[in-house]
Design brief:
By secondary structure, the chain is mainly alpha-helical. Helix content is about 70%, strand content about 5%. It has a single domain, classed as ABC transporter involved in vitamin B12 uptake, BtuC (Orthogonal Bundle), CATH 1.10.3470.
Amino acid sequence: MEFASNITLFALCQQLLVGLSRTTILFIVSSGLSLVLGVLRIPNVSHGSLYMIGAFLAYSVAMFFGGGAIGFWLALIFAPTGVALISFILERTLFSRLYEREHLMLLLFTFSFTLVFGDLVKLIWGSDFRSLSPPPALSGAFSVFGFPFPRYNLFLLIIGPLVALGLWFLTNKTKIGKISRAAAVDREMVGAVGINVSWVFAAVFVIGCFLAGLGGALVAPTQNITQGMDHAIIIEAFLIVIIGGLGNIWGALLGALIFGLTDAVGILVCPQFAIVFPYMAVVTVLIFRPKGLLKSVW
């Protein structure tokens, strides 16, 4: 293992900024997974596939409207909405019948959808790479403390905290959020007071999957859109949920920060083994905090 010996402060700061922008994508996807896993107790392995579909839908919507600024902004609206619609149909027709089943069955059931979604993506979009350009206003770079930094990455850094605040407000200050938290603890009691728990679960599932689609739409301008992009993200999202604390939005944000920054530093320090760094960080966290960095809220 060879470590880079010519690391400069300039390169380190620039790489950390890039890592922070990747943290946004990791947080958005993992927070949706944490929401579904915390309330519904469903280890939704197909969450990564919905992320992939969100990216492909963003590309298609943007191209349908001619690309450019209008196509991009409409893609950010319609792509996650389309993913939410797909998830609503799945939840009402299939998932709602399986909430009381064993976790192993749920795990295998959701895994089967990764295969189905993978074939559907190949059937609809083919196996070729797709790419989506950011709008002119978010193209190019500008100087941050003397370091060139892509405008789109700054946009991601703004979106991340906004999503975190929105989720915190949803889960702590709204009626649906409070009911969801109660249903996660004792769904029978919530149903006994006249609340339709089934529709509460449907709402939570749709919100979680909407976040997966949003993450896919946001990541589209930063990397190639292709089959298989769901595999890596779902592993990372599960690890982030585990080290952050089940159902804890701020824990998911902290876990995403750890994962994103250690990955960025790994690429700079030892590119050949960069993938090892975030997993080493996860192992270290779990050794000292087996239940996660922050307390589970569900």
